[in-house]
């Protein structure tokens, strides 16, 4: 009995920590898992059992295959063609959303949204339309499309692996399509015809424009009277100014950025500061420093301004910018930080970063090579180097290999794990992907969260918490019939997925639906499908799904915008899912 209450308290603390973003999700889940091991609720072997789960291993391999296709530029070129002929709001929705949904059934939806977001923003700027009308539907379309196939989202593969572990056959490649296709078609209809009415026509505070830039920056000229000429920035005490941040030095039409503490100051240097502009004017009191007109603010062509979103799994999270070694790590300097569509007024270096924060940065050419870092998603279009015909050819070959493997899986010749392993091996042998690229393409934080969730799920089972929750659900819903039970399973999963990642929600719900199936003597498969669909259907918050987080700041949205458009879609998807499952299996 003590174990039961201990697990309940630990789970409540874990969910609260995830909800209030006290730490990165993988850290919270790993810490909870270690507590259960140390208290003997699960054994060390049970704690690491998730690392050998077939679904989790398949997800890791799928990251490599999808990354190879994304690298070829085929997805980007397809998106550009879709946008090229669009003329109106409904037209762009009808042209863009269905193909994106179909694509996300076979390719990880996060890179699709990362590629499409700056393109849609640029199209909106050219047409004089607010991007807030399009970016949430873009994210939702990829979420809907991910429910169509087994590889559409990591959640589907996790549920597939859990079914196999529990002695079931698992999901076939297109088994989810019976539910996924109806909810995608109806959901797209809702987005195409209703989203323009529900979404705000909110002009984004485009911090890239010169007027907005002057809000953040000021230029100071170093003259011959400056007492620290040919001395370092640190000796000149320009790195510890209250409310100010030295981001760049312009010298002979060349930018030095980011600026290190050891950079020497020369006569004629133009120092670019960001922060409290009233404090910048006080620099005029320093002998040898002259404040320049803000209208002269500019950047050389080889240094640009970009916006980027801090990810859920960033190494920068919950740290002050000045403590992250940001400049040397990313070859960039932060100009400003926006949170929930408002610029933070604090000194840049003292800002503690959180998921979803938008960073305005000065970057050079080196940043372009690192911009797909796990720390942030770029939401500003950067000019890429031209994709060679050979790279495009490799992309099509990778797509062909994936199609062949899908055919072999569908026909029952190969298992999903074997097919992905063979595809990855062939890509590696033919040098379509290098060991270094494999390391970067695999989203290790996702795998860690999923693996930890398996151990936490076993703790729910061992302590009796899963059985208790299952009985509570049935006592509450069973008097109203089977459909009420199915609805309650969907709702609980959906609540979990708004608090944590979709895959973790599915893993934690699985032992509960196992108990529901045993007690009510119904097949586990339809319950597992409801869990898979519901765990992916995160529409009401910007933090429940990675793609929602990407478009949150880029579209200038507020939290209530997701609730306004997401609540009806959540109800629609829930009703269609439960009715489809009931019709197909019961």
UniProtKB/TrEMBL annotation:
Record bears the keyword Transmembrane: yes
Topology in the lipid bilayer: Multi-pass membrane protein
Bilayer-spanning residue ranges: 6-22, 27-49, 134-153, 173-193, 397-430, 442-460, 472-493, 524-545, 565-585
Domain RCK C-terminal positions: 204-289, 293-379
Residue stretches in coiled coil: none
InterPro entries (UniProt xref): Cit_transptr-like_dom, DASS-Related_Transporters, Na/sul_symport_CS, RCK_C, RCK_C_sf
Main subcellular location: membrane
Signal peptide residue numbers: none
Keywords: Membrane, Repeat, Transmembrane, Transmembrane helix, Transport
Record's subcellular location: Membrane
PANTHER family the UniProt entry points to: BASIC AMINO ACID ANTIPORTER YFCC-RELATED
Protein name: Di/tricarboxylate transporter
Natural source organism: Guptibacillus hwajinpoensis
Taxonomic placement: Bacteria, Bacillati, Bacillota, Bacilli, Bacillales
């Amino acid at each position: 009995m003590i174990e039961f209450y201990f697990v309940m308290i630990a789970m409540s603390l874990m969910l609260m920590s995830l909800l209030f973003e006290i730490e990165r999700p993988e850290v919270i889940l790993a810490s909870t898992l270690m507590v259960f091991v140390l208290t003997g609720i699960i054994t060390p072997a049970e704690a690491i059992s998730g690392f050998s789960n077939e679904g989790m291993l398949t997800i890791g391999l799928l990251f490599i295959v999808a990354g190879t296709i994304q690298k070829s530029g085929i997805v980007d070129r397809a998106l550009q063609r879709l946008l090229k002929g669009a003329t109106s709001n409904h037209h762009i929705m009808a042209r863009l959303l269905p193909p994106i949904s179909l694509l996300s059934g076979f390719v990880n939806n996060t890179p699709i949204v990362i590629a499409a977001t700056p393109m849609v923003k640029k199209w909106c700027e050219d047409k004089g339309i607010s991007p807030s009308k399009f970016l949430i539907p873009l994210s939702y379309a990829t979420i809907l499309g991910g429910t169509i196939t087994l590889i559409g989202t990591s959640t589907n593969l996790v549920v597939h692996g859990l079914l196999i572990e529990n002695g079931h056959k698992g999901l076939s490649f297109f088994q989810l399509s019976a539910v996924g296709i109806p909810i995608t078609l109806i959901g797209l209809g809702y987005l195409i015809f209703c989203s323009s009415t529900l979404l705000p026509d909110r002009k984004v505070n485009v911090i890239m424009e010169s007027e907005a830039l002057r809000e953040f920056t000021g230029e100071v000229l170093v003259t011959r009277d400056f007492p620290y000429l040919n001395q370092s920035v640190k000796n000149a005490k320009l790195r510890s100014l209250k409310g100010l941040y030295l981001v760049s030095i312009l010298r002979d039409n060349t930018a030095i950025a980011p600026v290190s503490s050891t950079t020497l100051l020369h006569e004629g240097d133009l120092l670019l500061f960001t922060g409290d502009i009233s404090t910048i004017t006080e620099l005029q009191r320093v002998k040898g420093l002259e404040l320049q007109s803000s209208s002269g603010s500019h950047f050389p062509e080889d240094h640009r301004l970009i916006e980027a979103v801090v990810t859920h799994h960033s190494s920068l999270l919950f740290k002050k910018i000045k403590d992250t070694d940001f400049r040397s790590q990313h070859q960039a300097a932060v100009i400003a930080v926006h949170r929930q569509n408002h610029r933070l007024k604090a000194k840049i270096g003292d800002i503690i970063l959180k998921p979803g924060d938008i960073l305005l940065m000065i970057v050079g050419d080196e940043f372009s090579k690192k911009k797909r870092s796990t720390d942030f998603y770029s939401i500003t279009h950067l000019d890429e180097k031209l994709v060679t015909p050979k790279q495009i050819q490799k992309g099509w070959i990778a797509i062909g290999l994936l199609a062949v493997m899908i055919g072999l899986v569908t026909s029952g010749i190969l298992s999903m794990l074997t097919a992905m392993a063979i595809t990855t091996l062939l890509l590696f042998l033919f040098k379509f992907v290098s060991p270094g690229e494999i390391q970067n393409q695999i989203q290790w934080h996702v795998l860690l969260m999923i693996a930890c969730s398996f151990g936490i799920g076993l703790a729910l089972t061992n302590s009796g918490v899963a059985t208790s929750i299952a009985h509570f659900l049935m006592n509450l819903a069973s008097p109203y019939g089977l459909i009420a039970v199915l609805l309650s399973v969907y709702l609980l999963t959906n609540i979990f997925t708004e608090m944590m990642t979709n895959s973790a929600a599915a893993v934690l719900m699985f032992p509960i639906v196992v108990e529901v199936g045993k007690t009510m003597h119904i097949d586990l498969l339809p319950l597992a499908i409801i869990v898979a669909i519901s765990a992916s259907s995160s529409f009401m918050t910007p933090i429940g799904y990675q793609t929602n987080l990407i478009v949150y700041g880029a579209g200038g949205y507020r939290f209530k915008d997701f609730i306004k458009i997401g609540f009806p879609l959540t109800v629609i998807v829930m009703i269609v899912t439960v009715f489809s499952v009931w019709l197909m299996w019961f």
